[in-house]
Prior knowledge:
two-stranded antiparallel ribbon, mainly alpha
Amino acid sequence: MGHHRWAEGEETVIVQQYQGGVSIPKLSVAHGVCKPTIRKVLRRHGVYRVQFAKQLNEDQRQQIIAAYQAGASVPVLSQQWKTAENNLYRLLEYAGIKRDLARYGQGKSFYIPKHKFDDATEQEIATAYAKGVHTGPLSRQHGCSKGTILEVVKRHGIPRKNRGGLPFVWDPAIAEEIVMRYQAGESMQKLGWAFNLTNFRIAQLLRMKGIVKVGAHARGARHGSWKGGKTTSHGGYISILLQPDDPYYGMVRAGGYVFEHRLNLAKKLGRLLLPQEEPHHKNGVKSDNNPSNLELWYVQRKGQRVEDLIDYVVTHHREAVTRRLNK
């Protein structure tokens, strides 16, 4: 892409129009160039884009630049002038302050000076941090970012404090009661509700006591979503959870569940059903798994026998059938 050559005085006209309130997109359309080209023109003439903190005037921007060159950090200036750090970074870039490529690489679009302390100040910061002072107060005291404080601490070999405040301390009586109720069969979720604790905190206690192994998950009645071992599928079929020692465990699907109609018919026959054997609901109601309503079919067939439907309707809806026949 070639460099755009402006006619004499055209750049001055663009600057005047921009200062008069014309936006960059409208200027790019009027002069037949892209928006970055308009921005370059404004930059060459020392005009800052409107998005640089509209509440700051030219005098205030010059004060910010002077304070930054005197050693003030961008986070401190951001708090002082009540504007975003990104606005200040762009302001410094458009003011012609070069990037520190050796430290921040080619990909950065702003310059952040390395904050330098003397040995005495660094030792003071490291000592205060080791005594318990947090990075926030230290950064405000020394006019730098929290990251700079952590870099000083790291250089002095002081381990970083854990996040989240003080460690949790268990009341021995409460801990003993939680363990006793869990061993009695109460789930972690219910224990959390009872003692106003999270499931993570309950599990942490049980692991400390050696009751629950790391990585173990609650199963069966101990699980918070336990519903008695019975579920209903979207198709309307009921499933029952079987234990491995159940004599009909050989018919279970993934997860240890078996369809209730298969289980009831197997118990009626006294044997496991073969994969090609399918119970058939005589009345067509999938949730009616009474053994008297089940019939063994060797191959699955859709629908119900006409005779079975007639018998069911006449038996259970005799009055409706009589009214329909008398019409």
